[in-house]
């Protein structure tokens, strides 16, 4: 099979397409023919060995000290079942499924083997591109907004980085939960963010976010340019600060009304997000769709910091 592989850390050009052995599903696994996979900021950070402050040593131990331990990147994917392991009973070849592979990665390939319990069925009303696109940003936004901040009617939510993969989902989910949303983005993306449900937008190039007099019940930072101190100054008395891209220091100090960490990958969350996409509650924003052969260009777009929503590749 063909896959996008890396054998060293570096710029987007280190990613190349090569022929590699097709994985064989173990007894409890499913072999999926990948139809679409997201290229995310996490893929970019791993490829370039660029991790949030303080995490470099830990990340290298996980992903490879001198060179990448996982040659094939990619986590969020959607596709069709090719074969199933001996213990798999409720999934059959031909079924359309999607999911995330976690630290195993491997989704930037024609085929990926995944434990059956980590797969969700893709609704027919949702395209493979939308299914792959919604999972990474959607699960993160859902976990922090619903599970950590209990966002609900009447609350005010600030989304810093509202036009990215996480931010576009966060704006829509917060609106869905009944909150009033303010999105921080560029002037060029203000219309998009407003169309997703933000009642107000702030242009980060023109306005100093940390100097605003406004206060919010929830501040969700997807960019990493808010510290605990600067973020807390934006909160109401009972507000919650959600640091999705926090440094090691901020992560260790996160307590009380500050939350940091990594969102879990749960099938029930995949299923909820897919239902919201299928019924039109969530629009999956896709910046570009590339063929696998253009994987380096996909990484360059992520690295540019100018992508809007999601980058997807089709193996």
Automatic annotation (TrEMBL):
Signal peptide: none annotated. It comes from the Bacteria. Gene3D superfamilies: Medium-chain alcohol dehydrogenases, catalytic domain, NAD(P)-binding Rossmann-like Domain. InterPro entries: ADH-like_N, Chloroplast_QOR, ER, GroES-like_sf, NAD(P)-bd_dom_sf. Coiled coil: none annotated. Residues 10-313 form the Enoyl reductase (ER) domain. GO terms for molecular function: oxidoreductase activity. This is Alcohol dehydrogenase.
